[in-house]
Amino acid sequence: MTEHEFEPVRGLPGELPKGETMLWQGAPDWWALAQRAFHMRTVAVYFGLLMAWRGGAAAIDGADTVGALQSALGLLPVAVVSLGLLAGLAWLTARTTVYTITTKRIVLRFGFALPKAINIPFTIVETATLKTNSDGSGDLGLTLTSPNKVAYLLIWPHARPWKVTRPQPSLRAIPNASAVAVQLMHALKAAHGDRGIVHAPVILVQETTPQGALSPA
User: Fold this and answer.
1) pTM for this structure?
2) What confidence tens digit (pLDDT) does each residue in 28-60 have?
3) 10 versus 168: which is more confidently predicted?
4) What are phi and psi of 100, to 5 degrees?
5) Which long-range contacts does 141-145 make (Cβ < 8 Å, 24+ apart)?
6) Sign of the dihedral defined by the CA atoms of residues 130, 204, 162, 98, in that order
7) Angstrom distance (rounded) from CA 173 to CA 157
8) Are 110 and 116 in contact (CB under 8 A)?
9) Cβ–Cβ < 8 Å for 174, 99
10) What pLDDT was estimated at residue 191?
11) Strands, E, within 87-176: which ranges?
12) What's residue 214's pLDDT?
């Protein structure tokens, strides 16, 4: 038995209403999430520098090579445990997260301790921003129209980093992000066009290297 076993539809709080179709469903890549949301790489570099500093300090104090190395490696268990915890959190987060795009909304289902499902209708999406990574994964951040707002801490790590005053719900570390972004872009344009919305422009901005840039057409 799992915490999401009784979902009527995987990743959704209920059955899709008549006339609404699921377009895409996926989850974060746990390794990409570990590096970019839980900053495993930064933490590893931090411990590496700390171990180098500790070994150097021991050498300056008169320790021989073996003693300096032992002093540096004294931090290794702490580093391994810390990185292991971050990796475990990233894996659990990815395992319990489902992102869904339908013809009318985006749904973020997440949480292994306190499961949550956030519904974001296309009618309140102002812009969608794609940030891609070298491995093909990426983040899709959603800017909501005023006065719509969601608490940053409520949705972290499924939020665009550093956007605290105006949080942006995000699909984090999704594989093949460019293809998902194009699908979302067309769904947003179709939904806004169907409703005749003119006050909320649908724009897809890609924050990445020039290669593979998207066109809104």
Assistant:
1) 0.82
2) 999 999 999 999 999 999 999 999 999 999 888
3) 168
4) -130, 135
5) 141/168, 141/169, 141/170, 142/106, 142/168, 142/169, 142/170, 143/168, 144/120, 144/168, 144/169, 145/200
6) negative
7) 10
8) yes
9) yes
10) 81
11) 98-102, 105-110, 116-121, 125-132, 138-144, 170-174
12) 40
Token pair recorded at residue 81: 């445990």
Alpha-carbon distance values, 213 to 122, 137, 182, 207 (Å): 23, 15, 11, 9
Q: Please report, to the nearest 10 degrees, the dihedral formed by the alpha carbons of residues 207, 212, 213, 217 taken in order.
A: -140
Higher pLDDT, residue 217 or 170: 170
At 217 the pLDDT is 32
Give the pLDDT confidence score for residue 84 in this predicted structure: 96
Q: Give the chain's domains with CATH numbers.
A: 22-27+101-207 (2.30.29), 35-92 (no CATH)
Q: For residue 40, what are its two tokens?
A: 């495993």
> Quick one: tokens of 168?
């942006």
pLDDT tens for residues 109-119?
A: 998 778 889 99
Q: Which amino acid is at 50?
A: L
Instruction: Report CA dihedral (30, 136, 126, 110) to the nearest 10 degrees.
Output: -10
* Helices (H), ranges, the chain: 30-36, 40-60, 65-73, 76-95, 152-155, 177-195
